[in-house]
Amino acid sequence: MRRIYTAETLPDAHLVVGLLAQAGIAAKVFNENAQGGVGEIPFTHTWPEVWLENEDDAERAHEVIRTLERGGTNQQVECRKCGESNPDNFEICWNCGVTIES
Ligand SMILES: [Zn+2]
After folding, report:
1. Ligand 1 mean position to 78 CA, how many Å?
2. How far apart are CA 74 and CA 68, in angstroms?
3. Per-residue pLDDT for 40 more than 90?
4. What is the pLDDT of residue 42?
5. From CA 42, how far away is CA 46, in angstroms rounded?
6. Distance between Cα 90 and ligand 1 center (Å)
7. 20-40 mean pLDDT
């Protein structure tokens, strides 16, 4: 396991995991529940993190994240089933798996 990304928000973390999954890279979100503690534990607020299952994927994962940070998320398409935002180059919703029609 290896941390590859620290997201500012939980949706961001899931977006990264979804992008990695599309690239065939297995990853998981950690600190998923930390957001609920905002306000209660401001000092120890922990941001959601994305961890790789396989460290060998790190290089490719960095590529994916670089692409994302270059503005890959500027265009968002809302999933018609679950309402989550997906990058417009997604063909399948990262959250529920339905085909996205833009
Ligand atoms: Zn969906």
Report:
1. 8
2. 9
3. no
4. 52
5. 9
6. 11
7. 79
For residue 87, the CA-to-ligand 1 centroid distance in Å is 12
Cα of 100 vs centre of ligand 1, distance in Å, is: 8
In this structure, CATH architecture of domain 2-74: 2-Layer Sandwich (3.30)
Question: Would the pTM count as exceeding 0.70?
Answer: no
pLDDT exceeds 70 at position 39:
no
CB 4 within 8 A of CB 65: yes
DSSP characters over 26-88: -EEEESTTGGGGTTTSGGG----EEEES-GGGHHHHHHHHHHIIIIITSSEEE-TTT--EEET
> Would you kindly state where each structural domain of the chain is located, as residue ranges?
2-74
Separation CA 37–CA 95 (nearest Å): 23
How many A from CA of 28 to the centre of ligand 1? 18
Question: Phi/psi at 12 (nearest 5 deg)?
Answer: -60, -45
CA of residue 34 to ligand 1 center, whole Å: 23
Structure tokens at 84: 């989550």
